[in-house]
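DEPOSITED CHAIN:
***
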Amino acid sequence: MAGTRILEPRRTPLVRPAPEVRTEPVRFARRPAYQAYRLLQAGFVIAPIVAGVDKFIHVLANWDMYLAPQVEKMLPVSGHTFMLASGVVEILAGILVAAIPRIGGFVVGAWLCGIVINLLIAGNFYDVALRDIGLAVGAFALGLLAREFNRPAPRPETARP
């Protein structure tokens, strides 16, 4: 039969090619968990830096009064000098949260736990210690969320010859 195509090879493949894999970054901006992550990051950048700077200028509080006398006696420097050094540490911790939140969140959380222990030893500031426990929990949550939302960029595949 002259018009049949039975013996001709089939030109369309039987299996469809797989769709191209998208390599663009996933957009998180509308996800509530991502928004919470960014709020926590902003808070734990701003608060430690402001508190650290205020250790030098004493506008918000006289920070020296929060150092437990028992802790001050163990220090090789004066309490005021120690508080100035802690101000520098707080500023650096805030910068670390801005740059590497998956590490900085845990550093700030640990720092806040140290502050809580100091306040409990002092025995006068239980309300501030309770507040700092809540802040520490938030800082640890930031560190955990950053593991999800602030991953290092994947390396591009090298071209194969």
Observations:
- The two ends are 49 Å apart (CA to CA).
- Residues 32-149 form one domain.
- The chain has one domain: 32-149.
- The helical segments are 32-57, 69-74, 79-99, 101-122, 126-149.
